Amino acid sequence: MNSFQPLIICDSEPPLPPARVDFFQQPFDQVFCAAESELEDLIFQIIAQPKTLSAHLQRIYWCYQKGLSDELCAALLDLLIVLEGKGRSLSERMIFGAKSALSKSDYARLKHGLTLTAQQVKELQGNPYSLFSLGLVGTALLVVKEPSSIVTHYDPLEIARDYIAYSQLEAAIETLEKALLLDVNRQALHDDLIELYRVTQYVERFEKMYAVLSKQMPTIPSAWLELKGFFNEG
What we know:
Shape: elongated
Strand content: under 5%
Helix content: 55-70%
Order of helices and strands: HHHHHHHHHHHH
Structural class: mainly alpha
Number of helices: 12
Distance between the termini: 49 Å
Radius of gyration: 19 Å
Number of strands: 0
Number of domains: 2
């Protein structure tokens, strides 16, 4: 029988009942201690299969251990969004336990998220590392007295092209990868991402994305096959 250890221990909040993670089939040290090289795989796994709870918890634990405040906040917010108001005990434990690695504003926002509906949680402000948040990133809060509010959704393709204009190719690739896994039929996303892979020579990253798309699409676009052949020849 496997024994489990606490995920993150925190003494600055009211004590929570002991929580077990026996929905896992692996011991704690195998499930949560993901190597740094595996973090990117976790992101791909979460985007492709958002309901994979173990991947969310591995991502949170890794970011906490590395002291990456923004990435940790995004991972916790994504967990809240995916749980859709369920698993409150687990959400509380992860948020309260991660308090020391979060900014005061991020901690307050996540704690407030525990009281919101599933749709309201999705609309919480995220950051560039958030995968599922619909909230705006990096904008000032404007208070306007109107009978209703309008939420603006930004086109990831335009955001990626803005990154490219400022030579932020890594950020452009991340944006396109996330967008493509959510909308695999949008040809412009394929075209821009393939061109970035070709220019940057990110062979390993290309191969990971190629493998994910091969599982999600009945027929992978020919441009992907051509770039795969190009990389193999090189």
